[in-house]
Amino acid sequence: MATKPSNHNLNVLKKPLALFSQSPMTGFYRDGYCRVGPEDGGNHAVAGVLTKEFLDFSASRGNNLRSIGLEPGCKWCLCTARWKEAMEAAKSENDPVVPKSQNHESLVLIDGANRVYLHATDQSALNNGITMENLKKFAAEPEAAGGGGSLEQKAPITPGTKGGIAKETH
Is the pTM higher than 0.70? Predict the structure, then answer.
C-alpha cells in the first residue's frame, strides 16, 4: 500500500493527526486513525461518534454501517461526503429521514450526535467541501473551546502490517 504513515498526516488544526479509535478499529486503513491516502476514494477523514440518527441517515443513503457491526456511540472515521450530506440534510425541510426540530441543524449532528473530534480529523476533510467553521460548530467538548481533545497519542501503524483496507458497503 502506498500511503504515508499517520505521524505525517496533519489534522484540521494543522497538528499531527491523533489516534481516534482501536475499538472498534476504525479508519480506512483500519489502524485507528482517520487518515487519508491515495487508495481512500471515500475520504474517511472525519472523526465522529455515531448516533442512531446518523446510522439511520447513512443507511437511507445506501451505506448501512450497522451491517459491519457499528452502533450508536462507536467512534468512526466518516466519509467527508456523507458527513457533509447529513449536515446539509439537517438544514433542509425536504429530507424524509432527517428528524426536524425548531433548530433544523440539530438533526443528526447536534444533539449529541456525530460530534467531531478535530484532533483526529484529517486535514483533507477541508479539501472536500467541509469548512473549519462547520467542523468547529459540531466539535466535541473540550475541542469546541479550543482544548484539542485528549485521545492518547500512540505510535503509528504502517498499513499492511495490521488491519488492511476498510470494506464498507456504499
Answer: yes
